[in-house]
Amino acid sequence: MDIEQKQAEHIDYFVKQASAHNGASLANVAVEATSHPSLFAFSEILAVPNVLELQGTENSVYLDLLRLFAHGTWSDYKSNAGRLPQLVPDQILKLKQLTVLTLAETNKVLPYDILMQELDVANVRELEDFLINECMYVGIVRGKLDQLRRCFEVQFAAGRDLRPGQLGNMIQTLTNWLTTSDNLLISIQEKIKWADSMGEVDKKHKKEVEERVEEVKKSLSTKADMDFRGQEEIFSEPGGVMDYEEDRSRPKRAPEMSVRCFFA
Q1: Which member of 12, 41, 108, 263 has the greatest number of CB atoms within 10 A?
Q2: Which residue stretches of 107-255 are H helix?
Q3: What is the pTM of this model?
Q4: Would the CA dihedral through 14, 16, 18, 21 be positive or negative?
């Protein structure tokens, strides 16, 4: 089962749980959801009316907790730890995983130094173990560990919940992409039309050449035929050249001798 299908099932479960609880009992739902090892999206839970009703109550910290896991990072938690419930180890692990996803949204090459700082990791070995065991094996990211360059090259990263105001930027990005795609499609279509027209020109030119060749062939054939007939007429005319075979069949005449008589 892929990670998207798992997410859908876990989200559906916690949305039903949140819808069935109110007030203080929602605290347990929030802690369970943010501790779950396979849940990485929380916006649907945040949209449940019962959860939104925590705003302004003594249990509003659990609403803030869900918002932290939906949009925040480990650094955000450290900056606001005094106003949030203390995290258990599973929540800390989850928030650090989500931090990697946030960093991968805007950078496909993550330097080790930045990752160690953002995740509070002491050394490279610990960082690489975390990336391999807690991120890549889980399926939320794929990439390559480059020890020589001391960086993590991101090939895939699961998306997080959209932050407030991020939807507008995403819509603008998609709009720009759509405009670029439309322009590219128009350009491709124009090139196809040009190629088709050039193909027709080539076909027409080829046909004209073939017709011209045929005309030349016919012309040469006619001329050769006329020359041949002319030769036949020359040899068939009276007084023309005698046939050699006929000449050999006639008997040869002895040369005439002149006789002179002498009288005494």
Answers
A1: 41
A2: 112-119, 124-130, 166-236, 244-249
A3: 0.67
A4: negative
Query: What integer pLDDT is reported at residue 230 of this predicted model?
Result: 65
Q: What is the DSSP letter of 159?
A: P
- Amino acid identity of 173? T
CA dist list (Å): 87 to 82, 93, 122, 131, 181: 11, 10, 20, 21, 46
For residues 228 and 222, is the Cβ–Cβ distance under 8 A?
A: no
Q: Say if CB 134 and CB 38 are below 8 A apart.
A: no
Say what the pLDDT of residue 208 is: 85
pLDDT band at 170 (very low <50, low <70, confident <90, very high): low
Question: Burial, 39: exposed, middle or buried (Cβ in 10 Å; 0-12, 13-18, 19+)?
Answer: buried
Q: Do 161 and 43 contact (CB within 8 A), yes or no?
A: yes
Give every CB contact of residue 16 below 8 A, 6+ residues apart in sequence.
Answer: none
CB atoms closer than 10 angstroms to residue 31:
18
